[in-house]
Write a structure and sequence with these properties.
The protein is mainly beta. The protein contains three helices and 19 strands. A hairpin with a 4-residue loop joins β16 and β17.
Amino acid sequence: MKKTGLFVLLLATAAWAQNGSDANSFEAPQGTSPSSVSFPTQRVQTPTYADLYCAGFISKQILPDANFVAGGLQTPNTTKFTRGDIIYLEGTGYSAGAEYEIVRALRDVNEYEMFPGQKKLLKETGQPYEEVGRVKIIDTRNKTAIGQIEYSCDGADPGDTTIPFAEKQPVTFHTPIHFDRFLPPSNKLTGRIVMGKDFDSVLGTGHKLYVNVGSNQGVKIGDFFRAVRPYDADLRDPVDSLSFKAAIAEDDQEKTPSIDPAMFTKGKGPVIHVRDLPRRAVGEIVIIGVTNTTATGMVVFSLEDMHAGDRVELDQVQ
């Protein structure tokens, strides 16, 4: 019995050593001395069914809204319909047994910009849509088709648009890798996070977001993008820029540094050039949906909060 226990322990130790060897067997780029801070091991969170089918999207092409939800079994007393509910659908082309996706064109009731130029960028990017759920047609003998909601991301409302349902493409993932936190800029495809799902501006692991590059630029489902942020982005943020106005030196420091270019703090010592500080990668995004000009992504690994307005760069990972 003792011999068996010892054998199992040896096997476990060998396996641990092998895994540790694999995790650290990458070839570090020239000019680096890797550590767990600069090259953390990345383990991604894989999307669920709800992540794929409830993520929403931004489309430059406005969807036709001739087909829409007209009401439900308990209209007008009920105005939100969820899984299992019977709903009535206006429009044409419905057939018994067909499935339709329920989507909703969105508007942001909060007029505050999360980063300078967000409204203009969003207008150029397209119309945001929420994916509300899926309905199956069960009767077409009346002027309005009758459907039953099969899957619900949110309560369907009268006026929501219905479009033919299409299966989502599954997403494949790479094995755990070392994430280069301070990778210099490359010539790969770049874009920007326009906004998060539900108009969120601060995003973490599991959150969905929208970027302003799509299939016209070669983006595909399953592509990985790293979100990056230069330090001079804080100079343009009305809140974060306040930190540059604070004293950064000790009271007994003879030569106090100055912040350039804004010169928020003045000193007679060295000048800190904010734009010369290395950009930092704040996490990784996997693409779960694309249109011609936009893509929907999910944060699968984050070292700190991502923000609406952060830059994204195509990350070639294996």
